[in-house]
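Page 42, continued from yesterday. The earlier attempt failed because a stray header line got pasted into the input along with the sequence. Redoing it now with the clean sequence only.
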Amino acid sequence: MAYALDPEIADALASIVAARGTAPAPLRGDWKQLRENNGLPYLAALVAPSLDVETASFFTTAKDGAEIELRWYTKRGSSPGSAITYAHGGGMIMGDLDDYDTLISSYVSVSGVPFLSVGYRLAPEVSGDTLAEDMFAGFIWLVEHASELGINPRRIAIMGDSGGGGVAAGAAIIARDRQFTPARQILIYPMLDDRTVTPDPSLEPFLTWTYDNNFTAWSAVLGDAIGSDTVSPYSVPARLRDVSDLVPAYIEVGELDIFRSEDTTFAQRLAQNGVSVELHVHTGAPHGFDRFSPSSKLTRRAMSDRVRVMRSI
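This time it went through. Structure tokens are written below.
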């Protein structure tokens, strides 16, 4: 049976094209044009602001001495004692804290769990392990400031979506290797493998993040090392040889997403090595389906699962 987009998501994508038009596809390897085509601010506007959520800004120092911005979100009247550190999406080459403000606010409003959004630096301005190291620095900042924020340091999860999902997974690996234990890693259609650059014709008609986009983004992160055996698993989590002792994972991906195979393979490897994992593959869903169609039944179902996991931390 042939693949098909979920009808509600198909309608939402058609509406976005009608409203915004279509930009010319960037040339393979042109990260500047891909960044200029960034649609994240538009997608942020599709989510209504959460009026019961408050924010505060903090800063921490990265491994190389750079200053990293942190944005702390709390729901008024809620103090569950847990928290989530978040890495925004954008293929590791675009996006910022503002682009995810409404999404994270909605997570906090619905779940009651506070979030720390980490302003990790982007490729190619930085490269390799730096992105995950920035995210880890945000996690460590929250561990160190947990008591003053009313958080149990053993109940802090690491979460991210898309490129940020890869950054979050890399930070979870760093945490394991440095003897820290996040409560969980929550990976939403994460970008995990630099070798996902060869097109699958059966998926190409449905792609919102293409194989060319993926090559461009990973090239910005890894340079000439893309596809080689020299890349670090902190940069490319799918390259990790020993997945044992990683923290429990929640992984979610659409069946019409180029990350489907790498995400399900990663989940399988975790399970085979004694790591608890919950995996969801959503029928008819392309990459970023929840951002394109926030009110669809599929998105509501996915959000219900995410919130359940957030509240369990």
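Notes: The CA atoms of residues 108 and 114 lie 6 Å apart.
Reminder to self: strip header lines before submitting.
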